[in-house]
Amino acid sequence: MIRVLGCYGSIAARCHTTSFLLDDDILIDAGSGVGELRLDELARIDHVLVTHSHLDHVLSIPLLADTVIKLRMGAGGPAQLKPIHVHALPETLEALRQHIFNGVIWPDFTRLPSAAHPVLVFHEVQVGQTLRFAARGGQTDRLVHVLPAAHTVPAVGFGVDTPQGWWVFTGDTGPNPALWQALNGLRIAQLVIETAFGNEEAHLANISGHLSPETLAQELAQLDGEVSVYITHPKPGEVPAVLSQVRALDSRHRIEPLREGQRFHVPADQPPTSL
C-alpha cells in the first residue's frame, strides 16, 4: 500500500509537502507530510528514497533521524542501532552532507551516535537502476525503478512495480522526454505527476523546472494507453483552478487531484481510499 502523507508545493493548515509511505517501512521523499506519522510509525521506517535535494522534499530527514535514534537501538545501545538507509543521486546526497548535515544547520547524523553505528546511511542510486527491498508480511520483494526527471537540480522519479502495473511518481520535473521513453511499453497502473503552477504562471513553471497544465497536456500526449493520472505539487488553495485547466486540455485520461490521506492499494486493483 502507498499512503499519501503530503502532496503540496508549500504549506498551510492540513497541507503538507511531498511524501509517500510504501507499506510501513519505505518513505518516498520526506517533506513535511512525514510529521503526520505517529511515533511508532516513524520508528518503523527503514528506507528513504529521495527524488532531489530541495527542502520541501528532504526537510523531515534530519528530524526523523533525531526522533527515532533511541527507538531504533536494541538493548545493547548504539552498537545495536538499526540505521535508516537514504537512497538518492550522488549529487543529492552531497547536497544533504554539505547543506544540512554539516554541524551548522543540523548535526551530522551520518556519524551519530558514532561513525561506526550511525542512524543514517547514504546509498547512491542512478537513473535506470532497480532497487530491491525485502518482502514484508509474506509478500514478494518490492522493486522500485529509478526514473529520469528534468528539474533545476539533479533529480529522479520512482516507479513501484506491482502485479497490476507500475505506480509511477515523477518527482519534480519539467518537460521530460526521457521519462516517456522509459515508460512507454510498460503497463502503468497509476501516474502521479506534478503540476506546480497554473497556465497564468507558465513562465515560472518553465524557469523553475516544473509543469503547468499546458505543458502537462503535451507530456501526457506522449504516454501510451489510458492511464489514471493524479496531479500533485500545486500550491495550497490552487488545486481547483489547476485541475480545471488540466481537464480542459486533456480528455483522454482520468485526471484527479492527489489528496493527503489517500491510500493506493498495491496491487492496484482497487481505487484509492481516504482516511
Please compute the radius of gyration using only Cα atoms.
Answer: 18 Å
Order of helices and strands: EEEHEHHEHEEEEEHEHHEHEE
Q: Strand percentage, roughly?
A: 15-25%
**For this structure, what is the CATH class?**
Alpha Beta
Helix content: 10-25%
Calculate the terminal CA-CA distance, rounded to whole Å: 13 Å
CATH architecture: 4-Layer Sandwich
CATH superfamily: Ribonuclease Z/Hydroxyacylglutathione hydrolase-like
Structural class: alpha/beta
Strand tally is: 14
Enumerate how many helices there are, as a single number. 8
Low-confidence stretches: 268-275
Domain Metallo-beta-lactamase: 16-233
GO biological process, one term: cAMP catabolic process
Pfam families: Lactamase_B_2
Protein name: Ribonuclease BN (tRNA processing enzyme)
